[in-house]
Design a protein that fits this description.
307 residues, 16% strand, binds pyridoxal-5'-phosphate, disordered C terminus, four-stranded parallel sheet, globular, 39% helix, six-stranded mixed sheet
Length: 307
């Protein structure tokens, strides 16, 4: 797809590159860890895949048309993705998110013309979900609510895309797949595809160790609403990562590999490295969900808003 002339920005979603993290191999005992760079998607994150699939499927099913506004709860990346795909396909988008989401995310989303309602930061994304349900219940005819936490098109995007691409990129050498749980779409869809290809492939989930954590995009399942698309029976193991470990790994990869990834991605790589240390041989694939600069405060834009 890359390098070709495309009809729409949404045709550039997917087919992301994968990088071997050579700087970790002294520590991993030679077990290679490959990082799939989902930040190469046009909206800058893994969520472009799910948003495109959900919106295209809803249009095809007649659930989303010109009379309706797409509304959903999102901690940010899905919001950017909905906004980008919605703008590209000519649909209005309204998002609900906790008010403490990074300023950069809010600004990126507004740049696409999307309307935002803020929910209580202390209630996290679960508070946003509750508020969306109230707004939709008040005016059901005005909105199309994809509900990324229960929409099968979310994991389907990863079954058709992420999983198939990983098989194409590393094939039979793959022994382990590691990624964090948010809506769980990436894990559920990719795992289904990988297990069909090689039932021996171990699929390992990453979760924040603490309920109050700084790994934006990941859910602490024990204290969260469980997404309807989540089937824990598909997982071979679950690893818990502390905020500091995830953050330190983002700094380390930026300096050692030129890869500046977000904090959930840092947690993914940290977990993959712990796993690599515990096995004699194999090949691990994990996901860079987004880029680190999404978490910077954008000074130029903030200065502009002050005028
Ligand atoms: C930065 C980041 N990491 C990880 C995830 C988790 O991905 P998924 O929702 O597919 O479980 C998300 C989802 O929003 C995210 O934004």
């Amino acid at each position: 797809m890359r390098g070709l002339r495309l009809d729409s920005i949404i045709d550039s979603v997917g087919n992301t590159p994968m990088i071997r993290l050579r700087s970790l191999e002294a520590e991993s005992g030679g077990v290679p860890i490959f990082l799939k760079l989902e930040y190469c998607n046009p909206g800058g994150s893994v969520k472009d895949r799910a948003a495109r699939q959900m919106i295209v499927d809803a249009i095809e099913a007649g659930e989303l048309d010109a009379t309706k506004t797409l509304i959903d709860a999102t901690s940010g990346n899905t919001g950017v993705a909905y906004s980008l795909v919605g703008a590209a396909l000519g649909h209005r988008v309204h998002l609900v998110m906790p008010s403490n989401v990074s300023q950069a995310r809010k600004d990126i989303i507004k740049a696409f013309g999307t309307e935002i309602t803020f929910s209580d930061p202390m209630e996290g994304t679960d508070g946003s979900i509750g508020l969306v349900r109230e707004i939709v219940a008040d005016a059901p005819d005005r909105f199309y609510y994809p509900d990324q936490y229960s929409n099968p098109s979310n994991p389907l995007a990863h079954y058709l895309g992420t999983g198939a691409e990983i098989i194409e990129q590393v094939g039979p050498r793959l022994t382990h797949f590691v990624t964090g749980l948010g809506t769980t779409g990436t894990m559920m869809g990719t795992t289904r595809r990988l297990k069909e290809y090689g039932p021996h492939i171990q699929c390992i989930a990453v979760e924040p160790r603490e309920a109050l954590h700084g790994l934006e995009g990941l859910k602490h399942m024990e204290s969260s609403l469980i997404p309807a698309i989540f089937d824990p029976g598909r997982l071979d193991a679950r690893m818990h990562v502390g905020t500091e470990d995830g953050w330190d790994m983002t700094d380390r990869l930026a300096a050692a590999e030129g890869l500046h990834i977000g904090h959930s991605s840092g947690a993914n790589v940290y977990a993959a490295l712990q796993l690599a240390k515990s096995i004699d041989e194999g090949l691990i694939v994990t996901i860079a969900c987004d880029r680190g600069d999404r978490y910077f405060a954008p000074r130029k834009w903030e200065a502009h808003y002050e005028w």
